[in-house]
User: Fold this.
Amino acid sequence: MKRDPLLLTGLALGAGLLFLAPVIYSIWLSFQTANAYYTGTLAFTLDNYGHAIGQYNFARYLVNSVIVSGLVTLIGISLATMAAFAFARWRFWGGDFLFGAVVATLMIPSHITLIPNYLTLAKVGLLDTYAGLVLPAISSGFAAFFLRQYIRGIPRALDEAAYMDGATPLQVLLRVIVPVARPAILSMGLYIFISEWNSYIWPLVAVGRQDMYTLQIGLARLYRINPGEGMIDWPLVMAASTLTLLPVLLGFFLVERHLIRGITMGAVK
Assistant:
């Protein structure tokens, strides 16, 4: 009977190492020189990180990605929470149709909106700006749907008690719904942040100035940095990839204790 937990633990650790192997290898490779990589030798160095941050402007790209992803997450989760509260707690004419339209947006490929968004932002002069990167990404139908299902599971007695004490709908949302739904909100916030952090196509289309590049655009352009004829400086690319990964890991560890609870409680009423 004691062998089963040990066996399961061993299998879990093995599976975890298998999934983490590419990440561990990329971090290991980031501390090698390009010459050592191509000759099969070992030569540890920190220069790849210094070059990525300084010479190839990754510090600026990091700031841009943090600003854009942070704003998209903050605005997107706020809009999704308000929409979810309205759909879950209020009955109004056309509400079911609007909610169906929100769910229907999940079936629309994001690439279809590239040209309309580009033309619209070009007309109002928002290309090569933070607003141009943020505005097309702030609406999340999936977040609104997920949070609506979660809020529907919160007892209405809490709302009614607050209304009896003279609270307004906005106060009920901020002081009752948001604290109770915090695990789901944090889970969706992390989902939105990671989705925007990894976004590549829209920043590539909407940004032409190098000082407005996000990390994903800067990372893709590192492939053109050649240490020799027909070669790619893979250790430099892996160092930049590691820098790109760190903020996502930090965000995960900050909300990890809420993540599983938010997903499971939102899925089961």
